[in-house]
Amino acid sequence: MNYTGLYEPHPYPGKLIVVEGIDGSGKTTQALLLHKWLQAANLPVFFTEWNSSPLVRSATKAGKKENRLTPTTFSLLHATDFADRLTYHIIPPLKAGMIVIADRYAYTAFARDTARGVDPKWVREVYAMAPRPDVAFYFKVSVQSSLRRLKNARAKIKFYEAGMDLGLCSDPDESFILFQSRVLAEYDKISEEFGLHVMDAELPMDEQQREVRRVLEAELQGYLGN
Amino acid sequence: MSETKRTTIPPRTYIGRGLPYNNIEGLPGWLIVLEGSDSVGRTTQLQLLRNWLEVKGYGVVETDWTASPLVASTIDLAKEGHTMNVLTFNLLYATDFADRLEHEIIPALKAGFVVLSDRYIYTAFARAIVRGADGEWIRNLFGFALQPDLVLYLKADAKTLVKRALLSTGLDYWEAGLDHNPGMDPYDSFLDYQSKLLKQYDLLAKEFGFVTVDARPAIATVQRNLRRHVQRVLADGLGHRPGDEPPAQDDDLDEELSSAGV
């Protein structure tokens, strides 16, 4: 088995669309709007979300609860989740010629795990089995906007989201800013390395979605039948 | 004897890219690995090694493949459900190993224990390659593993192994490699799968410098051979803290075995 990986186009008839960004960047909303649009056009769409496979759910939950996760086990559990979804939810629909929308992809691991201190080359090697997306959007937002949006939505910042496991700072908001700034710096490098389509996530939602659809119409020409 | 103490301790290294956030310099313990196929007698030999070392005054910590509190139950569940493929299998093994490395092995080495590891990453390499995984990927994946001070490889041919398996617990679905040979007779599948594994172990033995020990002779003979190699590592500073008093070989091993009921 050899992996073509993220550096070469995948061999499948389907299309893989990825949305990336830190928590509170609005990427999930954009992915849902995109999903609606493609469904309304009667296209076969499959949606898959980061960290959603039942295989590692209990281990991840227990590990988080006991604060047992290290940067490496955190990374590996997410990679296991990814590999499971890849096997059952990403490759089969791509082989069947469907459109797969992935809310977060390997780039999330590259950004977060590197920000936690694992070797950036190692985490790329672990994800060598990931096919290259046809289009990957990166919703770029400032740490301040992200924090504001998250606090509006649910008042409390989560432990791992704030990078509290790294012991950077005992105040969750401060820790969030320190950790997510590192993540953003990694995303900038990743955008360049893998050619992500960078979106200004500070703009109004509908404006961003128009841009997303414009890009996809161009990229998926032929597939979309226009 | 204490005059032969080495003043410079060889640096600890990782197999590959390592854990950049984890400082492993100057860990005074020893990491000793026992590798080998299913039913080759690892558990019995490990127990005897442990007992011998403890009698000699060395603190011993044992660690087993796929036994971490974090994912051991997930691995068992997934094995029952048969939903795993070579990717998820190995990623879970890697998660399990990383959990034990960071929470058990490194802290024990820091505290000066002899860590006896029942299997190590080489087991994953052999199994993954037999199941068609990319050899480079699996080596990269486990690049955070510590280089052991000694890898003892207990070796026996597949025919010997199958007899031992039948006499102890019978043929297990995974040990017989039935996932690898669907529909095959368990006995034939065991021989086929274990022969392929042995071939991989032989290649790994060369690549990673295992010490191969013939596992076919009597338990006491095998144990004497193992002790000889362990003693050398503890004594000559190939480990990371030359022993003050290297444990002596015992002449009363047969007696020890009979009293232990082995």
State the gist of this model:
Chain A has 226 residues and is an alpha/beta fold. Chain A contains eight helices and five strands; from the N terminus they run E-H-E-H-H-E-H-H-E-H-H-E-H. A five-stranded parallel beta sheet of chain A has the order 2-3-1-4-5, with helices on both faces.
Structural category of chain A is: alpha/beta
Number of helices of chain B: 9
Q: Give me the count of strands of chain B.
A: 5
* Unreliable stretches of chain B: 1-7
User: What is the overall silhouette of chain B?
Assistant: globular
Please give the order of strands in the largest beta sheet of chain A: 2-3-1-4-5
Topology, element by element:
The complex is a heterodimer of chains A (226) and B (262).
Chain A: E1 15-20, H1 27-40, E2 45-49, H2 57-65, H3 71-95, E3 99-103, H4 106-116, H5 120-126, E4 135-140, H6 143-154, H7 172-194, E5 197-200, H8 205-219
Parallel strand pairs in A: 1-3, 1-4, 2-3, 4-5
Helix pairs in contact in A: 1-8, 3-4, 4-7
Chain B: E1 30-36, H1 42-55, E2 60-64, H2 72-81, H3 86-110, E3 114-118, H4 121-130, H5 135-141, E4 150-155, H6 158-168, H7 186-208, E5 211-214, H8 219-235, H9 253-260
Parallel strand pairs in B: 1-3, 1-4, 2-3, 4-5
Give keywords.
heterodimer; A: 226 residues; alpha/beta; five-stranded parallel β-sheet; 5 strands; 51% helix; 12% strand; globular; B: 262 residues; Rossmann fold; disordered N terminus
Structure explained in plain terms:
The complex is a heterodimer of chains A (226) and B (262). Chain A is an alpha/beta fold. Chain A contains eight helices and five strands, in the order βαβααβααβααβα. A five-stranded parallel beta sheet of chain A has the order 2-3-1-4-5, with helices on both faces. The mean pLDDT of chain A is 92. Chain B has one domain: P-loop containing nucleotide triphosphate hydrolases (Rossmann fold, 3-Layer(aba) Sandwich), CATH 3.40.50. Chain B contains nine helices and five strands; from the N terminus they run βαβααβααβααβαα. The longest helix of chain B is centred in the middle third of the chain and has 25 residues. Chain B is globular and about 50 Å long. The N terminus of chain B is likely disordered. Chains A and B meet through α2, α3 and α5 of A and α2, α3 and α5 of B.
